[in-house]
Amino acid sequence: QLQLVESGGGLVQPGGSLRLSCAASGFALDYYYIGWFRQAPGKEREGVSCISSDHGSVYYSDSVKGRFTVSRDNAKNTVHLQMNSLKPEDSAVYYCAAHTSCWGYYNDIPNLDYGMDYRGKGTLVTVSS
User: Fold this and answer.
1) How many helices and strands, by DSSP H and E, does the chain display?
2) Mean pLDDT in each 10-residue stretch from start to end of the chain (129 residues)?
3) Which of 7, 8, 56, 92 is the most buried (most CB within 10 A)?
4) How far apart are CA 27 and CA 115, in angstroms?
5) In angstroms, rounded to a whole number, what is the distance separating the alpha carbons of residues 33 and 16?
């Protein structure tokens, strides 16, 4: 079965940290660009980060730049999103997706479905005191 599975979400206090993981099964992540996007209740999806297949380029949205770090471990077929200095406005369901390009994240009008071959079911992050 070809799938992406996110893990690592949970409840954290403001200022805290979480590390999300995105694990692939049934296919190799090596050649894919891996994006992270989030969706809060009643809000549009927001592209948070996207890392190229060769680690050569990484996109971060302005809202998370300097606080979130994406990394990939192709040997373990996994991508991680380290989230530090979390804020209540970071609360959302976080999804990872395997794309053929990060173009949709960089574009002035985001198109997060662009080049998407697989996506996970999401993991909930709640930042609250």
Assistant:
1) 1, 11
2) 95 98 94 96 96 90 98 93 98 98 91 95 98
3) 92
4) 16
5) 28
